[in-house]
Specification:
Structural class: mainly alpha
Radius of gyration: 24 Å
Low-confidence stretches: 1-64, 471-482
Number of helices: 21
Number of strands: 0
Length: 497
């Protein structure tokens, strides 16, 4: 994907925007009803604020394309590492908690208070911090978040009061909620073409798997050398090192790269912003359909993660090592499915995420019904592999999809809205499903989950033909327009040569 355009490309784009009769050229891809409604509801100010000029034309015509690609890849690598810095400052929780509770003489109920506080503050902040994330510089949010998260870990290591620890860990939940949305904003700025960024976004999401795998290695080795407090201090040091690296090397957007690090964020009045949030987020039918789908898939994923050990031992009479292998295969299938789903949505469906979300969600239902009927340990493990392959892509793609159907100014708010509904679905995997298990047994639980999967797939079906609402930055067209423009530009260059 080229980030700068030749003069012929610019003239061609202007011709497509303003033809001779003064009317807009129709899009090569017809908008869906959801898109038409979003476009008609969009505030006029938001449409006027979109620039006509090429915002991504950051480099002179003489600059080598290799340099542009290298800069984009450097930004990608930096945000990949950035989220691992966030992960290490929160995934260390299970390593320092037992020693802290032992020293304080507290039990598992107090341990649950710490974990629940983090989850509640993280979920609540995800819903309300989208406005700040969309208005502030993502680079500043990432650097500040990593430094503050490291400071929280240091403070927990320095205190012996459990209430203070609860407050600090809850504050860490708020800080951590700024991480992934800010990283997504950097990603979308550098990968504006919907027809190619799905695969890259799926690759970016693997930083969560890699980071989660590296945390035990770093924390356990540190604890072996310096004791249990190293489980707090070593992640704090690592997050600060990552913050310093981002501060020195990360631009955050092509505009910041052009201005040598000074990024001008768009200013919006409070009234126009609140109106856009109401019309483009709260009243957006596409986001509600995604939220319903995400609710069901999140409940299913959380149930499989939290209850599989009990289910497999009680219902399938499998040993604990076999149950652990099933969970490992589910994670492995999720890793592979996430990578495949992004590429499929790009290449097979031309940047549309709805078909992949719908198909993957529907695949969960028959797999659960097969799991309910069979007894073979090998087939059970195969079912868990397929469940991970089907469920995890939905989690990955909806994070991108929810930001693609709204204007750029409220993308983080849209992602936070859908994510908040998903966390409510995850909460339903606790007490409600536990009560259902006691009354209807595991067959009742799995049957309900299969029904939830079908209903979730049906909620995603209207999104089948939904494409990115945002115009491709600096190209003012659909995916097909973008491809046509590049093709005509190459033909024009060939004739001149």
């Amino acid at each position: 994907m080229c980030m700068s355009r030749s003069l012929s490309e610019q003239r061609l784009a202007k011709q497509q925007q303003t033809p001779a009769n003064g009317q807009a050229t129709p899009s090569a891809v017809q908008p869906t009803p959801l898109q038409e409604q979003n476009s008609s509801d969009a505030p006029p100010k938001a449409q006027e604020d979109e620039p006509e000029e090429d915002e991504n034309a950051l480099f002179d015509e003489g600059d080598a394309q290799e340099g542009v690609s290298q800069l984009r890849m450097r930004e990608f690598a930096l945000i990949y590492i950035a989220y691992m810095g966030f992960l290490i400052a929160r995934k260390n929780y299970g390593f320092w908690l037992p020693s802290v509770l032992s020293e304080l003489g507290k039990g598992k109920r107090e341990a649950g208070t710490l974990g629940s506080t983090f989850e509640m503050t993280y979920g609540a902040a995800s819903l309300f911090n989208g406005i700040l994330i969309d208005m502030a510089s993502p680079k500043h949010l990432l650097v500040g978040g990593l430094l503050l998260s490291g400071l929280v870990n240091v403070c927990i290591g320095a205190t012996t009061s459990l209430p203070i620890m609860v407050v600090l860990w809850g504050a860490n939940g708020v800080i951590q909620s700024f991480g992934w949305p800010s990283i997504t904003n950097v990603f979308l700025a550098w990968f504006p073409d919907p027809a190619s960024r799905g695969a890259w976004y799926s690759l970016l999401s693997t930083c969560q798997n890699v980071g989660a795998a590296l945390v035990p290695l770093l924390v356990s080795s540190s604890m072996a050398q310096w004791g249990w407090k190293a489980a707090l201090y070593s992640p704090a040091a690592a997050s600060c090192i990552v913050a310093g690296t981002l501060g020195a090397l990360l631009y955050g957007s092509p505009e910041a790269a052009r201005n040598s690090g000074d990024e001008m964020r768009p200013s919006q009045s409070r009234n126009s912003l609140s109106k856009m949030l109401g019309e483009q987020v709260v009243m957006n039918p596409a986001l509600w359909l995604m939220a319903v789908n995400y609710f069901g898939v999140s409940m299913l994923r959380t149930c499989l993660s939290d209850w599989s050990n009990v289910f497999l031992q009680e219902e399938k009479s499998l040993s604990l090592p076999v149950a652990a292998r099933c969970l490992f295969l589910m994670e492995l299938g999720g890793f592979a499915g996430s990578l495949v789903a992004g590429s499929v949505s790009d290449k097979l469906f031309q940047g549309r995420r709805g078909p992949v979300v719908c198909i993957c969600t529907f695949m969960l239902a028959p797999t659960l019904l097969v799991l309910l009927q069979i007894e073979s340990a090998i087939i059970v493990q195969g079912c868990y592999l397929l469940l991970g392959f089907s469920a995890f892509p939905v989690h990955v793609l909806l994070g991108l999809f929810s930001r693609e159907v709204v204007p750029a100014g409220v993308s983080s708010s849209a992602g936070g809205f859908v994510k908040c509904i998903a966390q409510i679905g995850g909460a339903f995997a606790g007490y409600p499903l536990g009560a259902l298990q006691q009354s209807a047994g595991w067959r009742g639980v799995i049957s309900v989950l299969a029904l939830v999967a079908v209903l979730s797939a049906l909620s995603a079906l209207p999104l089948w033909r939904t494409t990115a609402q945002n115009r491709i930055r600096a190209r003012n067209g659909t995916v097909s327009d973008f491809k046509t423009m590049n093709k005509k530009s190459k033909e024009a260059k060939g004739k001149l040569a």
